[in-house]
Amino acid sequence: MENKKLYIFGASGHGKVVAELLASNNCVVEAFIDDAPKNDFWHAIPIYNTLASIKRTDDAALIIAIGDNLIRKRSSFRFQDFPFFTSIHPTAIVSPTARIGLGTVVLVNAIVNSDAVLGNHVIINTAVVIEHDCSIGNFVHISPNATLSGNVSVGEGTHIGVGVVVIPGVKIGKWCTIGAGTVLLNDVPDGATVVGNPGRIIKYNTDFDILKMAVN
């Protein structure tokens, strides 16, 4: 992103992580944007309240640093006039055959192996392992130390918790929640919440909830 003015939407915890990610790649952050800023600066980076303070110029680019998948999706429509950019931490290992979408971040010590496909606005958190031929949908968040074995697919908006293990070939639906430490041995339908070892479904989002997430 040379010669671009880089902005981060979200000045809370994940925003700070993204700012340090960009610094590790020798990128300069112009400012945070936040709807309810608690401070005017974070370590010398200014924090602006809403977009009013930013000029939408040809050299501006933005990354959405919001951990909540649904809010991140809605924000992508809100900021659609900005080009989105992707950032990969220098300690991450990403196969040259992997494909990574716009607005996606790959954090410290993560691994993305051969022919894996990551959608747009995905969070691959610290020390995550994405094995060969995995397919990760848009707006997915995979939490620290989770491991997805080969040929796993994850639908849009799903949250994979800390330390989750998924065996090869499992298909996880859209807008699911996979609780921390879960071991997934079977496919998961859309909207399910799964916990435990082995993973078991404890509840579902309603069809209305899933539809609402899909269109908003």
Backbone CA Rg: 17 Å
Under CATH at level 1, the class of the largest domain stands as: Mainly Beta
Q: Would you report the number of β strands? A: 24
Q: Which residues form runs of ≥5 with pLDDT under 50?
A: none
Provide the CATH architecture of the largest domain.
3 Solenoid
Please, how many domains?
A: 2
CATH fold name of the largest domain, please? UDP N-Acetylglucosamine Acyltransferase, domain 1
Outline the biggest β-sheet.
8 strands, mixed
Per DSSP, what share of the residues sits in E-state strands of 2 or more residues?
Answer: 25-35%
Query: How much helical structure, as a percent, in the residues?
Result: 10-25%
- Written as H for each helix and E for each strand, in order along the chain, the element string is EHEEEEHEEEEEEEEEEEEEEEEEEEH
Structural class: alpha/beta
- Rough shape? globular
Cross-sheet strand order for the largest sheet: 6-9-12-15-18-21-23-24
Compute the number of helices: 3
Oligomer: single chain
Span from first to last CA?
Answer: 29 Å
CATH superfamily of the largest domain: Hexapeptide repeat proteins
Mean pLDDT: 90
Active site: 132 (proton acceptor)
Keywords: Transferase
Binding site for acetyl-CoA: 141
Organism: Flavobacterium restrictum
